Amino acid sequence: MTELSNGRKENHGAVCLDVKDVVKRFSGVTAVDHVSVQIKDGEIFSLLGPSGCGKSTLLRLIAGLENQDLGDIRIAGEIVNDLPPYKRDCSTVFQNHALFPLMTVTGNIGFGLVERRLSKSEIKKKVSEKIDLVDLGGMEGRRPDQLSGGQKQRVALARSLVLEPKILLLDEPLAALDRKLRKEMQVELKRIQREVGTTFLNVTHDQKEALSLSDRIAVMNEGKFLQIGTPDEIYETPRTIFVASFMGASNIFPGKAVSKKNGAIELETRHGSRIFAPVTEDAAQDEIAGISVHPEMIRIELPAGNEQQFDAEKHTAFRGIIKEVFYQGNFSEISVLIKESDMPLTVFLTRGAGLETPISEGQDVIVSWESRRNNVLRK
Amino acid sequence: MRRKKDIVSKVLGGLSFLIYFFLWAPVIVIIVFSFSSNKYGVRWDGFTLKWYAALLSNEAVKDALIRSLIVACVTVVVSTIIGTMTGYGLYKLHFKGKQFLRTSIVLPIVFPSVVTGAALLVFFTRFIQIPLGYPSIIIAHIVFSTPLAVFVILGRMQRFDWSWEEAAMDLGATRIRTFMRVTGPTLFPAIVASAMLIFPWSFDDFVITYFVSGIGSTTLPIYVFSQLRFGATPVLNTIGTLFVALTIVALVLMHFLQKKSESTYA
Q1: How much is the pTM?
Q2: CA A156/CA B139 separation, integer angstroms
Q3: Were A295 and a residue from A348, A355, B32, B188 both cysteine, which residue would form a disulfide, CB within 3.0 to 4.6 Å?
Q4: Which residues in chain B (173-202) have CB-CB distances under 8 A to chain A?
Q5: Å from B35 to nearest chain A CA?
Q6: Is the ipTM value over 0.90, yes or no?
Q7: Is A359 a member of any domain?
């Protein structure tokens, strides 16, 4: 009732899907390991992780295609643990679309409505509404083998949405499409979600897709949730080494905290150098495992004769040698060897921020960034 | 070099011709002479349909033909149903010894018919007292026909995308509704194709049937064999023509259905 006292609508922010302490084991391997999450009505939530991390298994547990060993799953407040897929108020868009080959577009979209014993006229009306929604006008009579990948995707989406499920489960819906189409379908997915307002639970291994599509993201590895947050939280302040490297903050300095002062944590890296990072509220000193910094935050300078001294609390700076330059067009990915790290630093140099003199391999440089860009990683 | 190639291709061409000649010539001879008025059925003496009339008025032939048709039809229906269920089970279920079961299903096909026939006869008469006649013949035919159905259906299942079933259940269909609306219709061409393969297989069988048919239960192939004692007769030619026609119809249908199902699911 707190929501009501805040003056918000009752259904706004209501929990749509509640996963509580769910465990699933396959012959000794724990695919989903004590996972809990609450997804709100109307959210686009992404499960993000490398292949084999358990994200698809979790989706299948929610859909009812597998059964969990422990824990509860609630959809719109109702416990669905023992319900078969056809009795759950959710619907899945499969990775390979899984369209019925003998049925037309109309037949595929109307499949679930026929099972619900709706009248023919009602089915016709609802199907044509959804055909409009996913922009498939003129394709009604086609069979799946006469459709392109993107069109199949739209049919699969319409086939699920026509049932007006509480939650739509998307299993790597864009993985089968080529890059250009994927971008297009991302935009489409977001538009359609805004139009119908259905909660989307999206499974993906593509960080960019998750970042641009989601309201919230859960990063998963080895069956566990490592971090749940908004896209900017996940990208800018990854909590662990795994999340940091998976989200592309590829510069990681493992180390331990030695002191806290002036709102900053002083870290001693494995190589004995000192790095300062802003204090985050909840990190206990002995929990800290290191820091990460994004490649786009790092500047490269050529050493001038008169060495400027950096204030370590404000700037982190190292001397290094250019190892390799990968030209990417709009930016260059440069790897720089430094004494203070086993791994070369990765630096993104955008064309606008380019140096006067071109950089070549083997050159001595100074890499530096503002210390407030250092993100504290936990164990 | 060029000359050598010519000779090779000529020899191979000649061999191929001989193979097809021996494949088709006897069949064509039988068909042609079934319409010849020569009473030994070995020479062209002008067109006639009288041997077909004789065939129809011959009670022994009619009896054997009807028996063969009944056996073949029952065998087709039972074998395809069992074969479909077995194929589905062998494909979808995971259990210990599955590989063994899957491999051993081939036994009735690779075993010499004489061995299978003799074994079935001993089994029926000495161990489980199955009366010789329709019951023994039909059971024997189902035994050697079902593996064919399993093979055809397993072959198709291997190219299926089984997420269809999950999608159907996800969209609200129960297991039975899923089979009726999705799995069944998708398997249907394979089921019919296996039926078309089994029908001539059962209709033609001589060796195994000869062992288990007992006295007085003559199928068409056995009748033909028994008549050979009296030498080739024009009526045998008409029966031969009948066999060829039925078999070709079944094979053409099967081919057509397989083509169709392939183009649908490729």
Answers
A1: 0.76
A2: 46
A3: A348
A4: 173-174, 177, 181-182, 185-186
A5: 46
A6: no
A7: yes
pLDDT value at residue A286: 78
DSSP A76-106: TTEE-TT--GGGSSEEEE-TT----TTS-HH
Q: What is the mean pLDDT of each run of 10 residues along chain A (379 residues)?
A: 38 80 90 92 93 92 92 91 91 90 92 91 92 89 89 92 93 85 88 92 92 94 93 92 87 86 81 83 77 90 70 83 88 89 88 70 88 87
Beta bridge partners of A167: A90, A199
Single residue among A235, A251, A276 that ends a domain in this structure = A235
Q: What is the predicted pLDDT for the residue at B107?
A: 81
B99 vs chain A: nearest CA distance in angstroms?
A: 20
pLDDT, one tens digit per residue, over A138-155 is 888 999 989 988 899 999
A147 phi and psi angles, rounded to 5 deg? -110, 155
Please return the burial class of B252, using the count of CB atoms within 10 Å of its CB with bins 0-12, 13-18 and 19+: exposed
Same domain, residue pair A175 and A40: yes
If you classify domain B58-265 with CATH, what class do you get?
A: mainly alpha
The residues, ordered by sequence, that sit 6+ positions from A239 with a Cβ below 8 Å of its Cβ are A226, A227, A377, A378
Domain count within chain A: 2
> Which pair of structure tokens corresponds to residue A223?
């069956």
Between CA A327 and CA A330 the distance in angstroms is 8
Residue A148 is part of a domain; what is its CATH number? Answer: 3.40.50.300
Query: Is A160 found in the same domain as A62?
Result: yes
Site of tokens 């026909």:
B145
Handedness of CA B42, B47, B53, B56 (dihedral sign): positive
- Residue B56: enclosing H or E segment and its boundaries? helix B50-57
Q: Which domain holds residue A141?
A: 14-235
CB-CB under 8 Å, B169 with A100: no
Residue with tokens 């392939």: B262
